[in-house]
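Input chain follows. Return structure tokens only.
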Amino acid sequence: PVAADEEEGTAVPLADRCVLNILELFSKVQRDRTEERLLPLLTMFTQLALMSPALSVGDLYEAYRSIQPFYLWPQPYCEVVKDALDFVHFEMRCPGVHFRRHIVAEHNLPLPVDAPIKIDNESLHIIVDSSSPRAEHFIR
């Protein structure tokens, strides 16, 4: 489902719009100190962010900035906030990583989710730009 964004006149996926609305609610929770709303909001945020693999890095940065102040709150809030911050951090480094892991796990694909990548030394190929100053370390 797609919703029209009134401000920009562009189509925005509904899950992305919901995530952005939740980010706005984080500031209200912090301002009003309504602790009972934080855990449900964090859960909704991570689940909706998981369903919307198209969140931009800017939106993820905004999410990180919005959630980070809650890290200093007492337990159990800080633990759930840390999980949400880790989620956002990994998504910023590798967009869609949680979505791909979810799909692999949900459909029992033969690819293990957390398995290390094993590379046979004889089949490893590295492409190096020979004009780079550090290329001499890779070229024989």
